[in-house]
Amino acid sequence: MNTQLALLISVALDIDAEPLIRLQSMYEVNMAKHNSKFMKHLSKVRKIAAVL
To answer: Which CA distances in Å does 44 have to 6, 14, 16, 30, 50?
Structure first.
């Protein structure tokens, strides 16, 4: 869900858009954490950052 869709839903349902946006962000973070290729990349970045 992007910000515009969250705003459209919020207007249609008369609710705040921010919780919808937060839920989407939480979902995306969770999906990234379960992406093994991305997590390997993060591991490499952590090792490089530790040297700095």
So the answer is: 35, 45, 39, 19, 10
